[in-house]
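Re: that backbone. Tokens:
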């Protein structure tokens, strides 16, 4: 069979380009265009969605000018050891392949700052990675790892590692040497087999975000904090030595047993006091409507192979008018996308002003050439043109900033690789109000005057992922609402006292009193939304009785 010739490679050769992007599902062979290795000036190379590709030519090591290399969703089973010759490489993305191992030669990449290898079959990591002294971001989620190599945790190695994600593996032990990662800011070890968290983790001086959800921790008090995402409380608890460590070693003498019983009672009292303190700090009340909302979402069969899962609900009582409340909410949503949603690879959130949503709604998948949307802050455009426009903007960002990382919507374009049909949420007038995982419509965007929010979470992974992300979103909204309420109460206290003094004989009518009470309550009302198939058969309703069952005492759910 003749070697393939890709038009993108021919164009790059003709124009002397420094960047080459090839995205499609090529089923005709498992080889690359041999002319690719003639592009010695390439600084950015992306081969994504080439599902038939099984390996790469050793000549790849000759592209010494490469600064970023993206090889995601290509079906790769191995990487050539010649990758270690790319001494200037700063970004390597080999996500969503079939790799069972990474070459030891990666340890020769002295400039490597980001290594993304999620969604493979890795059972281990080469200890030579400890030589990558500039590594700042390591993502090995969704693999088969049973441990983190000790070489990665050695003192003086990886001083710049700030983000480590190894979620959804089989890791059953976290070495106490993790405290040697002095630059660590974010650690995600959710959905593994951990039974304990080493107290030494609290010694990481820059650690701000941790996720240990989905593990079977022995310390149930600690597990409650983990499920409640109480990072500061977790670190404080670990720093204090944890309840288990504080009780000392086992002793068979009666005197030691009596001392232990006394210590247990003291610990239980301290635990009760601490939980009461947490309650007073982050008390939230979430009302869950018993009657399903009239808004419903139909799901077209066409989304099955594109992005099949969706859950929705309506939230009332969110205070967005006060001060920077709206900005804080939008920032929190972005943070959830980066953390809980794993940069939108697990799920994507969209929020709408319910007053601008015209139901019933249809969750559909449509050809990129026919799907039109008015993205946030932009004019109406076809989806294919929007993607092309964002790609051009991303390329321009790289040139101007002289780095491969891009910001904004541009960093999510890879999630559409290889898709001919794009998912969308369509209103009763056939207007697209959401185009996950990229953007939602400007026509339904929320504002300071929004009083009812329509929330939507979609995923290509699972329905449970949608529900867990929605739970996290509502939890965060409750926290923000409580904060806004307390801030508003403090700011208006003196004004209210002045009003009472000067208008002691004035009285509000009952309607005004009800409006004022509604405007100043921190409580949220969460209303159910039904998702059905085209025949009206129920697929999912949120929140169901099994949803919003937070295992932390600082949340009260009234059904």
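Recovered sequence:
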């Amino acid at each position: 069979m003749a070697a393939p010739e890709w038009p993108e490679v021919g164009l790059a050769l003709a124009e002397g380009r420094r960047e080459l992007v090839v995205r499609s599902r090529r089923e005709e062979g498992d080889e690359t265009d041999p002319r690719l290795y003639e592009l010695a000036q390439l600084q950015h190379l992306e081969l994504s969605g080439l599902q038939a590709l099984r390996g790469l030519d050793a000549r790849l090591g000759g592209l010494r000018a490469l600064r970023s290399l993206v090889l995601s969703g290509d079906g790769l089973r191995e990487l050539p050891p010649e990758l270690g010759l790319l001494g200037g490489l700063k970004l390597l993305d080999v996500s969503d392949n079939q790799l069972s191992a990474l070459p030891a030669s990666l340890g020769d990449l002295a400039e490597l700052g980001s290594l993304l290898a999620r969604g493979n079959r890795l059972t281990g990591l080469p200890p030579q990675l400890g030589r990558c002294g500039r590594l700042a971001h390591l993502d090995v989620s969704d693999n088969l790892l049973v441990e983190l190599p000790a070489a990665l945790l050695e003192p003086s190695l990886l001083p710049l590692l700030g983000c480590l994600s190894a979620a959804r593996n089989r890791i059953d032990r976290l070495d106490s040497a993790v405290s040697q990662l002095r630059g660590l800011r974010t650690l995600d070890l959710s959905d593994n087999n951990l039974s304990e968290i080493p107290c030494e983790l609290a010694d990481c001086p820059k650690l701000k975000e941790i996720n240990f959800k989905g593990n079977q921790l022995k310390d149930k008090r600690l597990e409650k904090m983990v499920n409640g995402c109480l990072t500061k409380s977790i670190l404080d608890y670990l720093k204090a030595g944890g309840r288990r460590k504080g009780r000392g070693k086992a002793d068979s003498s009666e005197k030691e047993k009596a001392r232990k019983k006394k210590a247990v009672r003291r610990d239980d009292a301290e635990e009760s006091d601490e939980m009461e303190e947490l309650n007073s700090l982050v008390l939230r009340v979430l009302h869950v409507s018993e009657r399903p909302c009239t808004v419903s979402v139909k799901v077209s069969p066409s989304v099955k192979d594109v992005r099949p899962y969706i859950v929705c609900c309506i939230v009332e009582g969110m205070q967005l008018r006060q001060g920077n409340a709206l900005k804080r909410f939008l920032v929190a949503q972005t943070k959830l996308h980066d953390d809980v949603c794993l940069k939108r690879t697990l799920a994507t959130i969209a929020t709408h002003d319910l007053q601008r949503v015209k139901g019933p709604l249809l969750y559909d998948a449509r050809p990129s050439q026919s799907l039109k949307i008015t993205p946030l802050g932009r004019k109406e455009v076809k989806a294919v043109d929007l993607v092309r426009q964002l790609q051009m903007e991303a390329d321009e960002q790289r040139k101007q900033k002289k780095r491969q990382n891009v910001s904004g919507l541009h960093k999510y374009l890879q999630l559409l690789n290889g898709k001919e049909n794009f998912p969308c949420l369509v209103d009763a007038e056939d207007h697209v109000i959401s185009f996950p995982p990229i953007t939602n419509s400007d026509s339904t965007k929320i504002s300071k005057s929004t009083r009812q929010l329509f929330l939507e979470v979609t995923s290509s992974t699972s329905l449970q992922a949608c529900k867990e992300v929605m739970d996290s979103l509502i939890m965060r909204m409750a926290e923000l609402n409580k904060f806004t309420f307390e801030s508003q109460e403090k700011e208006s206290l003196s004004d209210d006292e002045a009003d009472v003094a000067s208008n002691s004989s004035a009285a509000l009518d009952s309607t005004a009193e009800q409006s004022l009470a509604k405007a100043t309550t921190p409580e949220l009302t969460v209303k159910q939304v039904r998702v059905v198939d085209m025949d009206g058969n129920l697929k999912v309703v949120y929140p169901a009785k099994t949803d919003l069952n937070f295992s932390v005492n600082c949340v009260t759910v009234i059904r």
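The chain has a mean pLDDT of 79. The first strand starts at residue 19 and ends at 23.
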